[in-house]
Amino acid sequence: MPGLGTLINIAAIIAGGSIGYYFGGLLKDRVQEGLIMASGLGTMFLGISGATEKLLSIKSGELTSVSNMMMILSLWPLLLFQVFSKLNIYCIS
Fold first, then answer.
1. For the chain, where are the E strands, in sequence order?
2. How many whole angstroms separate alpha carbon 90 and alpha carbon 36?
3. Residue predicted with more confidence, 31 or 51
4. CA 36 → CA 8, 53, 54, 59, distances in Å?
5. Taking the model in full, what pTM does it have?
């Protein structure tokens, strides 16, 4: 069935968000911050690995480079984070 993975992802996000909303207060602030950082780091690594997956390839004995802009554009969240942290603007309160 096409789109089943998307539906499962939506359900998982809603379930995780609901659990976090109702039971997040039971965790210490330090643990919550650690979970947020770990999630962000994991997402960053997934994005970078997806962007660089076919960055370099060998065709006809020559090393070719493709999707350079995809790799560069995948790093924009890091830039935004640095700008927002310098301006003391946080999305998470």
1. 56-59, 62-65
2. 13
3. 31
4. 22, 25, 29, 41
5. 0.51
